[in-house]
């Protein structure tokens, strides 16, 4: 199955508010690195463009809508840190299936501003990667993965009144693949602050979940798949103020 890069759309809702829509695969995943070098460069250029645009936001309020199964942990951390460094009041809102690296970005909200749709399913899990080489190379990869798991569990813990061990346990369920949480379960575990009650929420196409080694979604929790909807546009300037959109 060919995976397509995700999309980040940044636009002005008003003079004081910027909205960022994040959908699809985050960053440039490892399994694409040797398939299409030209495509890799193009994808990275667009992603860097997005990060630079986020850093340049000067609005007082930023809302980040997230509908993503995850992607590259490093790229998610870059987005997380770019949002955390903003002086704005940042709100993150999770929709559909929000998993893995996408949940890292969701933690970038200003205290008390992590929101989730009542129809959303939420997944945190241990990191995973591809590796090749001799024993030393594999041991090095294992060491890096342990440090990454520790870093991510501490990041979750830093956003709520809990310790990292709690999130280490959640990430370790199902042999390290995690467990799909309902919005209520995500709230109870301190991963979000508020549940938005909505009548209907569109979900991502789940056909790529097997590639991510995600646990099976219980039938009573499954959402109907729909195609991606967000678009990517170019940064423009209008009437003396920045209109942020990314291509």
From TrEMBL:
Swiss-Prot/TrEMBL keywords: Cytoplasm, Hydrolase, Protease
CDD domains per record: S14_ClpP_1
Enzyme class label: hydrolase
A Pfam entry, by short name: CLP_protease
Single GO molecular function: serine-type endopeptidase activity
Gene3D superfamilies: 2-enoyl-CoA Hydratase, Chain A, domain 1
Stated family: Belongs to the peptidase S14 family.
Protein name: ATP-dependent Clp protease proteolytic subunit
Organism per entry: termite gut metagenome
Source species taxonomy: unclassified sequences, metagenomes, organismal metagenomes
């Amino acid at each position: 199955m060919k995976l397509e890069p995700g999309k980040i759309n940044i636009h002005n809702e008003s003079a004081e508010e910027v909205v960022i829509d994040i959908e699809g695969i985050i960053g440039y995943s490892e399994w694409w690195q040797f398939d299409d070098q030209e495509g890799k460069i193009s994808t990275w250029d667009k992603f860097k463009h997005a990060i630079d645009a986020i850093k340049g936001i000067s609005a007082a309020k930023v809302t980040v809508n997230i509908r993503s199964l995850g992607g590259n942990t490093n790229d998610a951390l870059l987005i997380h840190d770019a949002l955390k460094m903003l002086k704005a009041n940042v709100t993150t809102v999770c929709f559909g299936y929000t998993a893995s690296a996408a949940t890292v970005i969701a933690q970038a909200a200003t205290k008390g501003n992590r929101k989730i749709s009542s129809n959303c399913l939420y997944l945190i899990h241990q990191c995973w990667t591809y590796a090749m080489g001799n024993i030393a190379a594999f041991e090095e990869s294992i060491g890096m993965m342990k440090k990454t798991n520790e870093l991510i569990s501490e990041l979750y813990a830093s956003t709520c009144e809990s310790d990292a061990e709690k999130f280490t346990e959640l990430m370790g369920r199902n042999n390290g693949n995690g467990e799909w949480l309902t919005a209520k379960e995500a709230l109870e575990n301190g991963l979000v602050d508020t549940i938005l009650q909505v009548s209907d929420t569109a979900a991502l196409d789940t056909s790529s979940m097997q590639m991510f080694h995600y646990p099976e979604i219980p039938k009573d929790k499954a959402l109907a798949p729909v195609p991606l909807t967000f678009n990517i546009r170019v940064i423009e300037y209008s009437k003396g103020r920045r209109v942020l959109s990314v291509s």
